[in-house]
Amino acid sequence: VAVLEKISAYSIRCVTRELAELLKHDNGAIRGYAVRALAATDGTESASEIFKLLKDTHPFVRLSAAEALGKFGDKKAAAAISEMLDEKDEDVRAAAAGALGNLEAREYAVKIAKLLNEERVEVRVSAASALAQLGLREGVPVLLELSVKNGSWSDLDALNALRRSELWARLREKRLTADFSGTAVELWDSL
What we know:
By secondary structure, this protein is mainly alpha-helical. Helix content is 62%, strand content 0%. It starts with a helix and ends with a helix.
């Protein structure tokens, strides 16, 4: 077993080096997928190289870099990622909000909250989820409305970050009764 562990560790180091080289590739898609692969292999030693990619010309690379740094917990990247909340590309803005939520970067909550008014649903959900991760309620109405429209509770998972289990029990209880006919926001407020 010890030999297999050493081989595995060596293999991961080799793969990580190969992926790190791909961060310099001319093709943006390859750079973006290399970032995602490094994030999947916990390539935290590549964080400084990935940080540089927050300014890449290719949106997919920038959003992948933000997601990876958020996953790594690289709090030094929060300021640079927060600048991405103002980008033109919606996917980049959504990824930046999610990354800041993962980094527990409460100092950017006001900027994240501005995304709750975005037209694109994915951006609003990402912002609302990030705010919930930060323990803030501003995104609750967005997540509740979307969950009611979709007929699913899957969008509400981020709300667990609020750590209010007694409210969740009451919310689920009310939601499952056929006699409640109000909006999702009214449902939440009734608790």
